[in-house]
Specification:
single chain; mainly beta; 195 residues; 58% strand
C-alpha cells in the first residue's frame, strides 16, 4: 500500500470509529457478530490509465461491533478495463488489464430517514493483477503482475425495499487505491438480509 493510501485509510477508519463510543451505551445489546447479510453489485469505473472499466462482485456481512451502525464485511471483486497508455514510440498500448481482489471493510450508517440509510466506510484488500497486451514492446505487462495491498474509501446510501429491511438496494461512490489499478467507481447493488 502506498503511504498516501495508508494515510487515507487510517484517517477514514478513525472517522468511522469516532461515532461508535457515543452509541455504545444505548445499543451495545444489539451489536452482534455472525453472518447477517449478502450483497452483490455492479460498478462502472473511471480508471487511472484505463477506460471502459467495470467491476462486479459480492460481499458477506459478518456482523456489527460496538453498535449496529458499525458493520463489518468481507468480499471479492473482479475488475476489468482497457489499457489507456502509450509506449515509448507514442503509440497506444493495445490490451486489457484486470484485478481480482479480496477485501475486508467496515461501514458506518450515519442516520436513517424513512427507508434511506446513508453510510461511509473504508476497507483494505489484496489485489491480484493481470493483463493481456498485444503490442508489449515496453513490457507494460510488468505493471499489472503480482499481488498488491490496496485501500478503499466509500460512501453511499441504502434504500429498503421492504419495511423489515430484508431486501435493500444501494448506490455508492468508491475510490480504490492499489498500485496501477487505481479507480473511482459508481456502484449499484442489492442486499439480502438473513435475519
Amino acid at each position: 500500500m502506498t503511504s498516501r493510501a495508508a494515510s487515507v485509510f487510517t484517517a477514514a477508519l478513525a472517522l468511522l470509529l469516532l461515532g461508535a463510543p457515543r452509541a455504545r451505551a444505548q445499543e451495545q445489546e444489539h451489536a452482534h457478530l455472525g453472518v447477517d447479510r449478502f450483497g452483490t453489485f455492479l460498478s462502472w469505473a473511471w480508471t487511472d490509465h484505463g477506460r471502459h472499466g467495470h467491476e462486479l462482485g459480492a460481499d458477506l456481512d459478518i456482523g456489527s461491533i460496538f453498535t449496529p451502525k458499525l458493520r463489518l464485511s468481507v468480499g471479492l471483486n473482479y475488475f476489468h478495463a482497457d489499457i489507456d497508455r502509450r509506449n515509448h514510440l507514442g503509440e497506444p498500448v493495445d490490451g486489457t488489464f484486470h484485478d481480482f481482489s479480496l477485501h475486508a471493510e467496515g461501514s458506518y450508517e450515519l442516520f436513517r430517514v424513512d427507508r434511506f440509510g446513508p453510510y461511509v466506510g473504508a476497507g483494505v484488500g489484496v489485489h491480484f493483477r493481470g493483463s493481456d497486451i498485444k503490442n508489449d514492446i515496453d513490457n507494460d505487462a510488468r505493471l499489472f503482475r503480482g499481488a498488491v495491498i490496496g485501500a478503499d474509501l466509500f460512501g453511499g446510501t441504502t434504500f429498503a425495499l421492504t419495511k423489515s429491511r430484508r431486501y435493500s438496494l444501494y448506490a455508492e461512490a468508491r475510490r480504490v487505491e492499489a498500485e496501477n489499478v487505481e479507480r473511482t467507481l459508481a456502484r449499484a447493488g442489492l442486499i439480502i438480509r438473513f435475519r
